[in-house]
Amino acid sequence: MGDVVNLKRFKKRGEREQAAKQAEANRALFGRTKSERARDEFLGERNARVLDQHRIENGDAS
């Protein structure tokens, strides 16, 4: 016969694991220094400018 599983304990364990994953994602996203955030913002803006410079614009709309 199968093992008896306490569903409340199983549910709580799943919620804790999910919370741990969310906390890890938040640490990666928000746990950066001001200089790291400024660098990422600068690189994002620079990449957008470079991409816009290489855009080919045609007169005909498709």
TrEMBL record:
Region (Disordered): 1-23
Protein origin, superkingdom: Bacteria
Family annotation (Pfam families): DUF4169 (PF13770)
Protein name: DUF4169 family protein
